[in-house]
Write a structure and sequence with these properties.
Phosphorylase Kinase, domain 1; three-stranded antiparallel sheet; 10 strands; five-stranded antiparallel sheet; Aminoglycoside 3'-phosphotransferase, Chain: A, domain 2; alpha+beta; single chain; 2 domains; 298 residues; 48% helix
Length: 298
């Protein structure tokens, strides 16, 4: 039996459908398989994903966060969940591209501000802290133990993480999404939504602000406007430096995420080696821009 047939059988066997169903693949995703399923009640997204301890991803926590995000008004409804499978409402909304984020800075900033402030009232269970500098250090341990092809570069990555962490301005702890790729923002024509909560957890706002800016390719001027919209006042020099440094940290983490994925993941159609190198090139450009503007901090 083919893998596709096995997957379809698993979907058909789920107890949440009304009548017969139609199944179609939903493209996208670097580590999970997604499908759109239509039944008598409407359309749904079926998401397959196992725990990835090497990425600090645990599906039980993801399901809790998805339910909390729906209760808070940020995410589609969760219709069903069991270990390894999550079924949510299909919104039929437009998936953002980088240019959509840049063209809608005010709405994206307002969405993040509300998410950061309101989600702590809805999440439950033991709190999870996503601090990118810890993630980078833990990835370094994983890469060392796994004999990564980038093993010799790890001391340099760790020294860079220390430098970028020292540039962070103290900010309040909020609840962050922590994976703000443009594709995780949806627009149904009336409002914006967030999806995919694998990495969501308590953090400062800066990682989401930096990730959104970096992943959307914002210019310095666009980043300034984005920060102004989020904080509802012009950012001071320390916030701007912190944001630029965190963009570098976000790219370093993404590159190291891909290095770890080279060792432990095998998603169909995904070239993790190429994705690693793409993010390292982007990191070099962001780091040059950061150091040109701010130098280094001892």
């Amino acid at each position: 039996m083919s893998a596709a047939a096995t997957t379809e059988d698993r979907i058909r066997a789920l107890p949440c459908w009304s009548g017969g169903i139609e199944i179609e693949p939903l493209p996208g995703g670097l580590s999970n398989a997604n499908y759109v399923v239509t039944d008598a009640a409407g359309r749904h997204v079926v998401r397959f994903g196992q725990d990835f301890p090497f990425h600090h991803v645990f599906r039980e926590r993801e399901v809790m966060t998805a339910r909390a995000a729906h209760a808070a008004g940020f995410a589609p409804a969760v219709h069903y969940a069991e270990p390894g499978i999550l079924v949510t409402q299909f919104l039929g909304a437009r998936t953002f591209l980088a240019e959509d984020v840049r063209a809608d800075l005010g709405r994206v900033a307002a969405l993040l501000r509300r998410f950061h402030r309101e989600m702590p009232n809805h999440v439950s269970g033991a709190g999870f802290m996503f601090w990118v500098f810890h993630v980078i250090r833990d990835y370094a341990r994983t890469l060392e133990e796994g004999g990564s092809r980038k093993k010799d570069e790890l001391p340099r990555y760790l020294a860079l993480a220390d430098e970028l962490e020292r540039a962070q301005k103290l900010l309040p702890i909020v609840f962050g999404h922590n994976d703000l790729l443009p594709a995780n923002i949806l627009d149904d024509g009336k409002r914006l939504w967030l999806i995919d909560f694998e990495y969501a957890g308590f953090n400062t706002a800066m990682f989401d602000l930096a990730g959104a800016a970096s992943n959307a390719g914002m210019s310095d001027e666009e980043s300034f406007a984005f920060l102004t919209a989020y904080f509802m006042k012009e950012p001071d020099s320390e916030i701007r430096r912190s944001h630029a440094a965190m963009q570098c940290a976000s790219l370093l983490r993404e590159a190291m995420w891909s290095m770890v994925s080279e060792l432990y993941l095998d998603a169909p159609g995904i070239d993790y080696v190429a994705y690693t190198e793409e993010n390292l090139v982007r990191l070099d450009a962001a780091l040059e821009n950061y150091r040109t503007r701010y130098g280094t901090r001892s």
